[in-house]
Specification:
It contains 6 helices and 23 strands. It is an alpha/beta fold. The protein folds into 2 domains: 212 residues, Spore Coat Polysaccharide Biosynthesis Protein SpsA, Chain A (Alpha-Beta Complex); 78 residues, no CATH class. The strands form 6 sheets. It has a 7-stranded mixed beta sheet with strand order 5-4-1-6-11-8-12. Strands 14, 16, 17, 19, 21, 22 and 23 form a 7-stranded mixed beta sheet that branches. A hairpin with a 2-residue loop joins strand 22 and strand 23. The protein is elongated and about 65 Å long.
C-alpha cells in the first residue's frame, strides 16, 4: 500500500472490539456490523474514507468477525481494497496497529475507530500531521460533555500534554480519527496486547514531548456507544437522510395489528398482532409475541442458559435491556 498524496493514505479501521457497552446487541453482531439508519456502521465509515480518496483499508478483526466480513467483503463495491488483520488474542488500540503495519505498508496512515461516525476532513488532518512532524495527530473537537466523555489536554502550541478520565474538566474530545506515523508503533511488542491512550501515548509524551498533537476542528460526531446512544443516532440520521422511521431491516414481518414507532428492527424480525414497540431496538431473528409491549428497550433472542446481568431481564424467549 504505497501512498501518494495526503487523503490517499491507507487507513486502519479498528473493528476488533467486544462492544461491551452495547450489550446485549453485541451478543448478536460485532458493533461495526450493526445497522445505523439502515447501513452497517462499518460501511458508513468505509464510504467516508473512500470519499476522501483513500483506496486501501485494513480492518482488524477478533470478535464476531464473520458479521463484519459479511457486510464488507473485499470493499470493491465501495471503491476500496479491503484486507483483514486477524487477532487472537485481541491486541488493543496499539497492539492492533502494530500487527497490521506490514499489511498497511506505508510510513503514514490513518487510524479510525470502528465505532466512529464523524466528518473530519482527512486531507487537512494529514497536512497538519506532516507540517508538525508529529508521530500522532488526533482529531479533536471542543468537549461536548465532560461528564460523559474523557478528554484530551493540549498546550498553547497544540501539543497533547495528557489524557483525562470522564468527569474531569477538559477542553477537547477525541473523535476516533488519527493521522499516524508507523514509527509511533515500532517499539510495541509484536503479538502483545497494548493500548494507545492508556499506555503508548503517555510513554511517547514522556520520551518525546510534542510528538503527539491535536488537530482541533469543527467536525460532527455521532455517538453509538450505548444502546440508548445507538437508537438516538440511528433515528437522527434516518430523519436527516429522509429514511422512513421506524427503521426496518430485511425479511421483517410486522402484523397490521401491531404498533411500532421510533424503533430500529434489524433483519428477520417478526412482530405479532397486538404487540407494541416504542423507542426499541430489536436484533436479528427476534419474534415479538402477540400482545407484548416494550418501551425504550433493546431486545435480543435469549442465549441458551444465559443469566441476565444487572439492567437486563428475561421475557419469555427474549433478553431485554432497558435503555
Amino acid at each position: 500500500m504505497k501512498t501518494a498524496g495526503h487523503a490517499t493514505w491507507p487507513a486502519l479501521v479498528l473493528t476488533a472490539g467486544f462492544g461491551t457497552r452495547l450489550r446485549p446487541l453485541s451478543y448478536v453482531r460485532a458493533k461495526p456490523a450493526m445497522p445505523v439508519a439502515g447501513e452497517p456502521l462499518v460501511r458508513r465509515i468505509l464510504a467516508w474514507l473512500a470519499s476522501h480518496g483513500t483506496r486501501d483499508v485494513v480492518l482488524n478483526l477478533h470478535y464476531k468477525p464473520q458479521t463484519i466480513t459479511a457486510v464488507v467483503g473485499d470493499g470493491s463495491d465501495l471503491g476500496l481494497r479491503v484486507s483483514y488483520s486477524f487477532e487472537d488474542p485481541i491486541l488493543g488500540s496499539a497492539g492492533g496497529p502494530r500487527q497490521a503495519l506490514p499489511m498497511i505498508d506505508s510510513p503514514r496512515f490513518f487510524i479510525v475507530n470502528g465505532d466512529t461516525l464523524t466528518d473530519v476532513e482527512l486531507g487537512a488532518l494529514a497536512e497538519s500531521h506532516e507540517a508538525s512532524g508529529a508521530l500522532v495527530t488526533m482529531a479533536l473537537v471542543v468537549q461536548p460533555d465532560p461528564g460523559h466523555y474523557g478528554g484530551v489536554s493540549l498546550d498553547a502550541e497544540g501539543a497533547v500534554t495528557g489524557f483525562v478520565k470522564r468527569g474531569t474538566p477538559s477542553t477537547c474530545h477525541f473523535v476516533g480519527v488519527q493521522a499516524v506515523s508507523a514509527e509511533a508503533f515500532a517499539n510495541v511488542a509484536p503479538g502483545q496486547p497494548a493500548e494507545t491512550v492508556g499506555a503508548l501515548y503517555p510513554h511517547l509524551l514522556a520520551e518525546r514531548p510534542g510528538c503527539v498533537r491535536g488537530f482541533v476542528c469543527d467536525a460532527t460526531f455521532h455517538d453509538v456507544g450505548t444502546p440508548h446512544d445507538y437508537l438516538l443516532t440511528s433515528l437522527r440520521l434516518a430523519r436527516q437522510e429522509g429514511r422512513a422511521v421506524p427503521l426496518v431491516g430485511r425479511n421483517c414481518a410486522i402484523d397490521d395489528a401491531a404498533a411500532v414507532q421510533d424503533s430500529v428492527l434489524w433483519d428477520d424480525v417478526v412482530v405479532e398482532a397486538g404487540a407494541a414497540l416504542d423507542r426499541c431496538i430489536v436484533a436479528d431473528g427476534v419474534r415479538v409475541p402477540a400482545g407484548a409491549r416494550f418501551e425504550e428497550a433493546a431486545l435480543v433472542r435469549r442465549p441458551a442458559g444465559y443469566a441476565p446481568l444487572f439492567g437486563e431481564e428475561i421475557a419469555g424467549s427474549l433478553l431485554v435491556r432497558r435503555l
